[in-house]
Amino acid sequence: MLVSIDSWGGKMMTKQRIALISLIGILVFGLLLSGQLVYKNKWVNGTLTQESQQIQGVLSAKIASHDGQSEILVQTSQIDNLQKASLQLQKISGMRPIRYVDQRTPELERIFQQMQFPVQEGIAKGNFTQMEQTLRELADKNNVTLNLAMDNAAIYLTLTQDESQLVAVLERHGQGTFLPSEGNTKGNSVE
Q1: Cβ distance 167 to 82 under 8 Å?
Q2: How many CB atoms lie within 10 A of CB 1?
Q3: Residues in the chain where the model's pLDDT stays below 70
Q4: Degrees, nearest 5: CA angle 172-140-114
């Protein structure tokens, strides 16, 4: 009889130990998860915000989620050197893609759409000198200031008219580092 009581008591102790270990495991997992969230929201976003504000023309940057994917939203004002700003942002973004939120107007969007044909032709055929000439003619015709730069990875294009500016990084090889830029609307504001 003593053996069965001890056996039953041993089973109870084992169940209590398993429950206690499970509870401790859940608590540790919860602490690690909350630590990761605090790290991401405070440390990474804080560092990103602080470092991005050192870049000329960048008002703010933050990590955001779009369709379940993490990306960096970068609010711009007037960027003079988009290529330099983009390379600096790449260094601080980690592996997250970057999306510019600019100060565009419908007029600048219309002109940019007209520029898509020569830009895509330039990328496909490699006739960048002709592309640049065509883009400058379109900008002059529409009284818009065009700032254009290029490297092996992308074409960096800004269209400026008065206080408005459209910013676009057009990747040459579809790397996915830069996402299509957007105009600053109420929902796109980066704080």
Answers
A1: yes
A2: 5
A3: 1-12, 34-50, 52, 185-191
A4: 45
CA distances (Å), 21 to each of 30, 57, 117, 169, 191, in order? 14, 53, 64, 52, 43
Angle between helices 128-141 and 106-125 (to 10 degrees): 160
Distance CA(139)–CA(108), nearest Å, equals 10
Give the pLDDT confidence score for residue 68 in this predicted structure.
Answer: 80
Backbone angles phi, psi at 97, to 5 degrees: -70, 155
d(C-alpha 96, C-alpha 45), whole Å: 12
Nearest to 103 by CA among 77, 72, 123: 77
Task: Return the beta strands (E) in 12-139 as ranges.
Answer: 58-66, 69-76, 98-102
DSSP letter string, 108-147: HHHHHHHHHHHHHHHHHH--HHHHHHHHHHHHHHTT-EEE
- What pLDDT sits at residue 16? 81
d(CA 89, CA 181): 14
Alpha carbons 142 and 161: distance in angstroms, whole number: 9
Q: How many residues does the chain have?
A: 191
End-to-end CA distance of the chain: 72
How far is residue 29's CA from residue 121's CA, in Å, rounded to a whole number?
A: 52
